[in-house]
Specification:
It is found in: Cell inner membrane. Keywords: ATP-binding, Cell membrane, Membrane, Nucleotide-binding, Translocase, Transport. It comes from Microbulbifer hydrolyticus. Its main location: membrane. By secondary structure, this protein is α/β, with parallel strands linked by helices. It has a domain of about 80 residues. Helices cover about 35% and strands about 20% of the residues. The protein has a six-stranded mixed beta sheet, with helices on both faces. The protein has a three-stranded antiparallel beta sheet with strand order 2-1-4, covered by helices on one side. Strand 8 and strand 9 form a beta hairpin. Helix 5 packs across helix 6. The longest helix is centred in the C-terminal third of the chain and has 17 residues. It binds adenosine-5'-triphosphate (ATP). Adenosine-5'-triphosphate binds next to strand 2 and helix 1.
Length: about 270
């Protein structure tokens, strides 16, 4: 997938000013690559993932993905393209009363006929595969539970199971392990990496945890203020570059109090606005 000088600006309803969520982003991510996106709160990570998922249209510039220009496609063709792209959202929008099995089955709805999707909503057709997918995330016992009976971390795992079950060619995940304990977070990122590699799929994940980003992803993109600060192999990123990426002039007291430099080797969850 390729972005050429892509920008997105949002109008703020309060004062009608524009926020440049992304500014002239140029990048290419090749098929099968595994990439982490890091950066401070408000850097534009979610917007970038939504742009790649074709959930957001660039206001200027261009996106080419899976050999097409999505915004030149008809409505039907765009829907078909979206069925080939999986997006795990930061707060998975799972209907509270839906059962886990149905939520996961919905991952393939875009690939099925309307009739099959409707039947599947009532009577999930592919129980064994769904159970296997949930088992990889230690959730097989929750298969028939309602989504509103799950914890935040369990809901995140349901959303990941749904994306894995979809078997997309591109899997995009927005802070997919933010509500998980450290052991589950490690396990889940390793699983995402392994599963996408096995299917030859591309994986792009935004993360606040630097240690996880650097450990699990060979390529890391640092985003700040809607612009790319660096895009390089994880092994080449220095602590100074990380300090520069996350520097927060709005939080002098917090930074002084902690007195801790940003260190990529320790698990780090940085202060958020
Ligand atoms: N729908 C929207 N309307 C107006 N402004 C928006 C909208 N979505 C995002 N923004 C603004 O765009 C900027 C980038 O937001 P985005 O959610 O992409 O950042 P982020 O890096 O994912 O942040 P976080 O780490 O806190 O999730 C922010 O300034 C945000 O306020």
């Amino acid at each position: 997938m390729t972005l050429r000088d892509a920008s997105i600006a949002f109008k703020q309803p309060a004062d009608a000013t524009q926020t440049h969520a992304l500014h002239q982003i140029a990048l290419t991510i090749n098929t099968g690559e595994q990439v982490a996106i890091i950066g401070p709160s408000g850097a534009g990570k979610t917007t970038l993932l939504r742009l790649l998922a074709t959930a957001e249209q660039p206001h200027t510039g261009e996106l080419q993905i899976l050999d097409t220009q999505p915004w030149a496609l008809s409505g039907n063709a765009l829907q078909q393209l979206r069925a080939r792209i999986g997006l795990v959202q930061q707060s998975p929008p799972l209907p509270p009363r839906q059962r886990v099995v149905t939520a996961v089955a919905a991952g393939r709805a875009g690939k099925w006929s309307r009739l099959k999707s409707a039947v599947n909503l009532l009577y999930p057709l592919d129980i064994d595969n769904i159970r296997n997918t949930l088992a990889k995330l230690d959730l097989a016992d929750k298969m028939f539970q309602r989504c509103d009976q799950l914890s935040g971390g369990q809901l995140q795992r349901v959303a990941i199971a749904r994306a894995l079950y979809q078997q997309p060619e591109i899997l995009l995940a927005d802070e997919p392990v933010s509500a998980m304990d450290p052991v589950l977070a490690e396990h889940t990122l390793a699983l995402l990496s392994r599963e996408t590699r096995q299917h030859g799929a591309t994986l792009v994940v935004s993360l606040h945890n630097l240690a996880l980003a650097l450990r699990h992803f060979p390529r890391v993109i640092g985003l700040r203020g809607g612009k790319i600060q660096f895009d390089k192999p994880a092994s080449e990123i220095s602590d100074t570059e990380l300090e520069k990426l996350y520097i927060n002039d709005q939080l002098p007291a917090a930074t002084e109090q902690s007195g801790q430099p940003i260190n990529s080797s320790r698990p780090s969850t940085l202060p958020r606005c």
